[in-house]
Design brief:
This protein is 22% helix and 29% strand. By secondary structure, the protein is α+β, with helices and mostly antiparallel strands. The strands form three sheets. Strands 5-6-7-9-1-10-11 form a seven-stranded antiparallel beta sheet. Strands 2-3 form a two-stranded antiparallel sheet. A two-stranded antiparallel sheet has the order 4-8.
Length: 144
C-alpha cells in the first residue's frame, strides 16, 4: 500500500491553562482568573526539558521569537506546542496558554500532560468538549 493512501491520524486540539478556580463541569458561568505560566523564554526552556521535545524553526515571515515559540514532542506522530506571549494587558510578555495539536493517541498525550502539569500546574482544556480535565479526570476519561 502506498504511503499516500494510509489514513491520516486525527488531530486533536488541547490547550493548557492555569485557571483559578478550575471551572465546574456543569456549565455554570463563574469568574476565573488565568494565572501566568511564566515568561516566554522560561516556559520554552522548561518545556525543552521534556524528553524528545525539540524546537521548530519558524520561517522568517512568521512572528518573531519574542512573541511565540513552536515546539514538537517527537513521540509517535507527534504533538505540536504553540507558546505565545501576551501582547497587552493584563500580563504583557507572560504566557497564559500553551496550545497543543496532537496526532498521538490520548493515552500517549497523557504522558506529556502529566509532565506539563508537574512543571507548571497547568490544566488541559479539551477543545472539542470545552471542558477542563485534571490529570486524574483525564486518566479516568481514558479508562471509560
Amino acid at each position: 500500500m502506498s504511503e499516500h493512501l494510509q489514513p491520516q491520524p486525527d488531530i486533536t486540539r488541547f490547550s493548557f491553562w492555569k485557571p483559578e478556580p478550575i471551572p465546574p463541569k456543569n456549565a455554570t458561568i463563574v469568574p476565573i482568573e488565568l494565572l501566568s505560566l511564566g515568561r516566554l523564554a522560561d516556559v520554552a526552556e522548561r518545556l525543552m526539558e521534556v524528553p524528545k521535545m525539540a524546537k521548530v524553526q519558524q520561517p522568517p515571515w512568521e512572528a518573531s521569537a519574542e512573541t511565540g515559540v513552536n515546539l514538537v514532542w517527537e513521540v509517535e506522530q507527534g504533538v505540536i506546542l504553540q507558546i505565545k506571549a501576551e501582547q497587552g494587558p493584563p500580563k504583557p510578555g507572560e504566557v497564559l496558554t500553551v496550545t497543543a495539536k496532537a496526532a498521538v493517541p490520548e493515552k500517549v498525550f497523557y504522558r506529556l500532560y502529566v509532565q506539563i502539569f508537574e512543571q507548571f500546574g497547568a490544566t488541559v482544556l479539551d477543545e472539542k468538549s470545552h471542558q477542563f480535565f485534571t490529570p486524574k479526570e483525564f486518566r479516568t476519561k481514558l479508562a471509560g
